[in-house]
Amino acid sequence: MFRFQSLDEDCTLEEEEEGQVEGDNDIDQFNDDTFGAGAVDDDWQEEHARLAQLDEGVRDLLAEGDVSSASLPPPAGSVPHPSSLPRPSASTLPPPGLEERGGGDLAESLTRLLLGSDPAIAGVGAAESDRSCFPSMSHAQGLSASLQASLLSYQQHQHILHRGPPPLPQMNSHSIWENSMGFGPVSISPGLVTHMEDSPLMSIIKEVGLPKRPPTMRAEDCLDLSERVPPPRSSSPIIGSPPVRAVPIGTPPKQPLSHAFNQQIHCPTAVHVQAPVQHRYPPPFPERLSPNTLLNIAVSCPGGNSPLCRPPFPAGVGPILSQIQRAQLLNSQMGPFPRGGPGPPPMLPGGSVGFRPFFSQPPPRLGPHPAPPNHNPIRHNTTHLHPQHRRMLTQRMQSRGDRGGRGGDRRSRDPYSNLMTQKEKDWVARIQMMQLQSTDPYLDDYYYQNYYEKMEKRLERDKDSIRKEPTTKLITPQVAKFEQTYRPVQFAGSLGKLTVSSVNNPRKMIDAVVTTRTDDEEKREKQVWNKRRQILYTVEKVYSLLLEVQDFEKKFLQTPEEQREALLDQHKTHTLQLYNSLKEKEWDDRVSDEQCLMIMSVRKGKRLMSRLLPFLPPPQAAAVLMGIARNLPGLAKKDKQDQVLCWLVEPVAIVIQSMSSSALTDLLQELQGSEGQLPRVLQNKFGVTLLYLILSEGERMQSSDPNCQLMDDNRWTELVFSVTRELLKVPSSSLSPPLFTPPNLLSLFSRYVDRQRLELLQEKLQITALSR
Amino acid sequence: MNYMPGTASLIEDIDKKHLVLLRDGRTLIGILRSIDQFANLVLHQTVERIHVGKKFGDIPRGIFVVRGENVVLLGEVDLDKECDQILQRVSIEEILEEQRIEQLAKQESERLKLQAVKERGLSIPKADTLDDF
């Protein structure tokens, strides 16, 4: 029972092979006529009777001696097919016994019998049966030799007969026999038992067992790639969701088949898949038996310590071991066929999973396998060969290779190299490349782009000097938008829209509805937050405009001639928008205080303002400045924590320098503003700096231009007077040190105040005479 | 020289002998067999090399799978230069002994330092043992 279960398990894991084999053999697996009720002729009873007779005859013969291999004409192997027997080549074995006994006649009669039952091959088989009889007869002894020949001929026939239904579901029928060389008497699992009755051959095998496998075959065939068992194909439909697998999505491709899955994961555009209709016949005998399990079955029986008593041979181990073997194959194929390795293996499973000489331990000691150059194609064909035959071939090739490839470098002798297939390497590289894809490199990787440009410029400059090759990255091509639109999976011929949820498109489980609470308090709080959010939003908008304007230069240089006009226009509109953003109402030409203040109340807004000012035209800039000056105390209070107003100094200085004298006077007036404003201004660093800037600008105007209008009315003088008064009055402690002290303040003050006061001022403000 | 971005540059290093320094201070030397996008490494015939002073000892470890984030650096070992080494190779037991002695000495000095500092009334906050970042 247990055995049966384990076999069954392995069964399911090898579904892949089935598909492949089908493809190879063009067999319609699922056709009723092939395997089901329709396939059986009406006269199955008759046939059964015949076979039963045969069975008795064979049994008698075999009872006298060992089973040796001779070849029953291979077509005989196809006989059991209606009864869905797995071992067509099973038929090869008992009849050998017969033959040995001198049953050339018997063999013939058998052949005729068996052949006759299957009309499809009747004609063909008969013709060849005789032929194959002879060679096998001559090798009556030497188990392997005869077996080899028989199998070889069987193989040939298999090729020919492939148009008919396969010997048995999938499992390359001969495979089992090839494997089970070393079996003792086999107690077939219950799964087989059901069909035992049908086949005389199977019963024979049951009794006699299978020929012993020659142990020497082990070492040489470790390179055989046919031992790879592809992983189980998921039974879930490949619709929308990634296939159900035990391994997470991030695992590299193991098999070429899984590569397809990976493709699907990375490119969700693979859609419109119709769930493959698969109805299978329950395997009468676990056709999906991995050769490993078979081996284990066989090995287990004589000893009684069945490996199947242990957990069944994990199918997962199969591929891993074979990966090493694949690697070795690759090693041996170093050179002209570096990629030849993975090629044949995928093709093999279909035809030749069969041949796995041993599987109990990984190939440990592998001597060097010098690469025969034409290894590849021959390898492929040898999969259908008898193990010994194959061994001979490889030996021959090796000897050829030995002579040729003696001087292989160390790497070719490393049996473990190339464990990572080229496909896997490409997969890793592809992941890294995908991460670099970008539609706008200046946006995604600004610093690298700049750095790169600098490097290039430098290299150009240093062209004449030592030319060091720069390390340039491989950049992925500008595959811009290739997967932007995700069309959900649609089923052909379905009514309506069926929702298929997947990783990329999760199903909506909850309908989330936004409900607003009408609590008063919350409302108020919200209002506050809303206002703030509003401000921030405005700031962001203006920022993006500003950045556009600032980037104009760069973009201008990059665009070709034709597009420069358009770019220029774009730039103008942007700058215009920038001005407008500071106005509260569209029709009001004046810069709105409200808006500016609003922006300035946020730290980011202040920064924005400092960057914005250079781009504004003078009158607007002046207006902004007025606004700032007017509301400086308020701003200063808000800024106490951040102290970011000082960012404004530079742009403000520039603006001031471009101001007219009247504007300047106005500005000074604004700064002084209401009663008590000046002291507060003086308390703030920015305020003091601003004041100094204004004064120094005024001084500069006066000293440079004798016709300056500054002195036209007394406003300037009065203002300066009041400033000096204030400066003297204010205690030193509340006077904040400015960011910098303009040099010409002293000269300014010397105009307006007497010596004593001047000295006082000097001391207070620490303006030295040197600064004159 | 063009190189691939990120982990893909390790592809060229496959099947070559490498020295890998781990975050916990261990030094592994092995043949790099396989990588993935996180720079997880599969090292074959790995040997852990312990260095104490001018001596070193190798402990054969077999196959290592190293999680990428634990690697500080790795570099290919020049097989020619590996032969002529200034360091002296010793047996495993000896090097482990040396390592133990070195550890003790370090702990001792650390303790003394801490004591001296305490005597002066200062305190050095003990670094968290798991503080790798």
Automatic annotation (TrEMBL), chain A:
Gene Ontology molecular-function annotations: RNA binding
Which terms are listed as keywords in the entry? Cytoplasm, Nucleus, Phosphoprotein, RNA-binding
State any GO BP term from the record.
deadenylation-dependent decapping of nuclear-transcribed mRNA
Q: Where in the cell is it found?
A: Cytoplasm, P-body; Nucleus speckle; Nucleus, PML body
- Annotated Acidic residues bias: 7-29
Instruction: Report biased composition (Basic residues) as residue ranges.
Output: 378-393
Q: Where is the composition biased (Basic and acidic residues)?
A: 399-414
A single cellular component GO annotation: PML body
Annotated region Disordered: where? 1-29, 62-104, 378-420
Q: Which InterPro entries match?
A: Pat1-like, PAT1_dom
**Which ranges carry the mRNA decay factor PAT1 domain?**
491-633
The record's comment on protein family reads: Belongs to the PAT1 family.
Name used for this protein in its record = Protein PAT1 homolog 1
Please give the organism.
Clupea harengus
From TrEMBL, chain B:
Protein function: Probably involved with other LSm subunits in the general process of degradation of mRNAs.
Top-level division of the source organism's lineage: Eukaryota
Q: Does the keyword Transferase apply?
A: no
Q: Where in the cell is it found?
A: Cytoplasm; Cytoplasm, P-body
The answer to keyword Cytoplasm applying to this record is: yes
Q: What is the lineage of its organism?
A: Eukaryota, Metazoa, Chordata, Craniata, Vertebrata
**One cellular-component annotation, GO:** ribonucleoprotein complex
Which BP terms in the Gene Ontology apply to this protein? Answer: deadenylation-dependent decapping of nuclear-transcribed mRNA; mRNA processing; RNA splicing
Instruction: Report the sequence similarity comment from the record.
Output: Belongs to the snRNP Sm proteins family.
- Enumerate the GO terms in the molecular function aspect: mRNA binding
Q: Record's InterPro entries?
A: Lsm1, LSM_dom_sf, PTHR15588, Sm, Sm_dom_euk/arc
Q: Which SUPFAM superfamilies match?
A: Sm-like ribonucleoproteins
Keyword list, A-Z: Cytoplasm, mRNA processing, mRNA splicing, Phosphoprotein, Ribonucleoprotein, RNA-binding
Assembly and interaction partners: Interacts with SLBP; interaction with SLBP occurs when histone mRNA is being rapidly degraded during the S phase. LSm subunits form a heteromer with a donut shape.
Q: What is its main location?
A: cytoplasm
- Gene3D superfamilies reported in the protein's UniProt record: 2.30.30.100
> What protein am I looking at?
U6 snRNA-associated Sm-like protein LSm1
**What are the Sm domain coordinates in residue numbering?**
5-80
